[in-house]
Amino acid sequence: MPATDNQGSFLNRISIRRNQVVSMDGNHEQELEDLELFQKHVADRFADLLSQSEDTLGDGLLSISWLRKLLDVFLCCEAEYKAILLLGRDPSQISKPPLDKLVPEFHDRVVKALDVCNAVSHAVETVRNYQKLAEIAVTALEQRPIGDGQVRRAKKALNSLMILLEEKEGSNHKSTERAWSFGRRSTNATTSSSKDRATSASQFRSLSWSMSRGWSAAKQIQAMSSNLVAPRGGESSSPALPVYIMSTITVFVMWALVAAIPCQERNGLLTHFPVPKQLGWAQSIIALQEKIGEEWKKKKEKNRLAGLLEETQRIEKLGVSLIVFADSFQFPPEADRLEEVAVQVAELGETCKKMEEGLVPLQQQIREVFHRIVRSRTEVLDLLDQGGKVTAPVM
Amino acid sequence: MSDFSSVLSPREGEIHVIAAAQHIVKALEANKNLDDDLRKILSQLDSHLSAMTVLTTESRGTGFREVEEQLKYAEEKIRGWESNQSLLWDSDEFDPLEVSEFLKAIDEIQALIEGLRSLSVNGNGKQKELLNRADSILQMAMSRLEKEIIHILVKHKQFFQPKNMSFRSCVLDVLYDESFVSVEDIPSEEALQRNSSGKESDEYNFDLVRPQVIPHLKSIANVMFGVNYDQEFCQAFIRVRRDALEEYLVILKVEKFSIEDVLKMEWSSLNYEIQKWVRAMNIIIRYLASEKQLCDQILGDYGFVNPLCFVEISKGFLAHLLNFGEAIAMGTHEPEKLFRLLDMYEVVADNLLDIDALFSEEAGTAVRFEFHELLRSLGDFGRATFLKFGNAIATNASTRPFLGGGIHPLTKYVMNYIKTLTMYCNTLNVLLKDQEAADPNPVVEPVNGQGVSSITHCQMACHFRSITATLESNLDSKSKLYKDGVLQHIFLMNNLHYMVRKVKSGELRLFFGDEWIKEHIVKYKQHAMSYERATWNSVLSFLKDGDGPGLCSASKAIRGFTIAFEEVYKNQTGWSIPDPELREDLQISTSQKVIHAYRSFMGRKSSSISEKYIRHSPDDLQNYILDLFNGSPRILQSSRKK
Asked: Residues of B467-489 as b/e, b for ≥16 C-beta within 10 angstroms?
């Protein structure tokens, strides 16, 4: 679903209707109707995402294609939100309660979201590194006849991959020092010494801090959600509600990205943030949140947390299995075993292809989200600025 | 290799031909004067001939003896090196012979593998085993080469040392704060610094890796690409070069900030970081040109791999620079940011062509796009900040009159600010032109009159005149705060004179034009005249009255005059005309008017004035007038005695 189409038609519709009603006192009713529509769209879009998350063919929850769809949804909702917030509204309303408090809070949140976008976008580079290493393994193991040379080549790449997967959780030093349990025992003499492991880990380290030191994705998400309170009573309709809805969506999207892509410092990432159960538009978000939260907990228990990205998990699983194969490899190979491996290699190749096709567009889309957030923020601030011209410093 | 494949289906009868050919090849190989390429071809030919022999003799059961022996030979060589810890391309122990032997051994194995593979249609146990061994040795050699490239790249990396690496921590700045206390004339140093820290004239590329190892890297690349280990080569190459760039970031003292950090940062730190950023941008684009050169040297033969690697190396780093820029463009539009912001805009604009050229390939599209986007954001921000500056002047309000009627800090601030802006003339004109197009009420006046400098009519000049007009009207309202109407004139005269002086003193003259200057000289002179009239006409009227034939005696007139003069003295010594020339001019013209009237009155009426009424001689008065406008209130001694 192309984001721009929806946005265009929706904006037109809203602005036309606003023009019709702007002279009437019934503006408020119109606003309620728009808000109703917005909630419905949000509910529909996330319901769509929820149903795609059931996909078992590799494009399900937290796959690259799912994340791209999630970002599309974000862009659509954002456009609609901005229309509701700005079109036909007297700018001075933004500097009056409740918006005078909600909008700056929202802006604080989106600035944090921008940093999350950057951290995630940078971390996509790391995921591309996983892909590159997996590709080497695929190249090696696709060769026929297969022999010690190919197997060793594949294993070398897969070992680097495992170190890298582990390293990405590496802000936790305990886990970096911990020797990776598979494949280590029998790796050849040059890579098994701990000194060598340290150097090969450090070869990737430069990628592991993209943000300023001490910056933590987990803390950002925490901070973004900490003052997220559903509007109550008289505030529960416009204009406080759309701000709350968009805030929730922003937090959810950023949270899902951080869970999927191993960006800087995810220790202590929330598994859950509160969204009131009775809200109609939030049902699918709540369901998705539970699913992702479950996944996160499951992975955490296994202490394997290179990100929940479907493709990464698949690479990891296949990598582990192929290392086991490599460790026990003896020339000449058994035909049965080879067939089994060929299936895994094909799957790994397929996954790499998906990553090759999807990661760069994903990165660009994250950037698009970034620019969109910046622009919207600027628009609102400009509007406030024009409204606030009269208040100048007095000497 | 394909050249040989056609030969690879010999018939029984040709076995002798093959043997003869092999003999010739061996004889040729013995020649010591062969160049490397030829030697390589011969060795490959040799291996192929062996493989052919294998195939033809296979049926007779002689087997793969020849191949096996060659394999064994190469294997021994490579294993020998493998067990040796010291690296082949280590510059201290670099042995060209050893290196070429190693590369030759790889060539041999490669040729054997090719030969063996081309035979493997029916799958023979022995042949498979040999192939397995050969592949295994090849992998060992490649793993070794991977280590070697990393070693060479790390050991021989060099950093780009721009000439003016030294970085001045902070330059003086036009600071805008509400009290305007920190405003002083900007030293011309800023102008000097701008010119010197811009692009350096020497636009040569720098060797980021010592040139003597480039051929080694190239030959390793050739070998690794030749046997389809290109992925490993690129991974290692990208990794080391990316680390070097990361290291360079530290050398350039560019720190990583989150957007949140930047938005919260104090202006003084931000100012410093921006200057570092601008400098880093200038340097880094040239560094990247050198990086590109390195990629071209080593990967130039491998098509799209080359730009792909280059983009991979530089992307992360550039993302960091871009983000800082975007973060700055998200801040608030304080006027004091404008200069630094224009610096940023200019450095991106200046380097944009280079960036486009560096990232011209498909792989670099996103990088190019992002820089154009950043330029747009910075431009929008710069324009908004400039326009906001005008608003800030219009709305700057005072509640108390400015003491002494001197030059208001706002006037100084505005004039120094626009004077500094002249250095950014071209950039601002571009930015404002974009805005003009969208504005229904443009500030730009239609050009009329001939022979006027074109600068006088550029966008910026029009904006400047509009800004000073805003300033004048603001000063006008500020002057209304004085209870004493006469002081209003002094205040306006002082400020207008300051504006004219600033405009006349440099570049600004071109922007404002002679017309403007003339007009404003007239304005402040009018205020001077109004001052004289308002102050002295009433004082001198005493003397005029004393001249009359009627009731008023001369003595009474002189008394009234003296009291009025002393009153003026008490008031106006506290007033201030900071410009010595302007002060002198006013004192002289006052003197002429007052002393002349006084002297002639005394001359005419001296007989009818009692001595005791004459407190001051004309010479005294002249001296008293010189005390006026010095900004320190005084009282005449004589009047106190009375």
From this structure: bbebbbebbeebbeebebebbbb
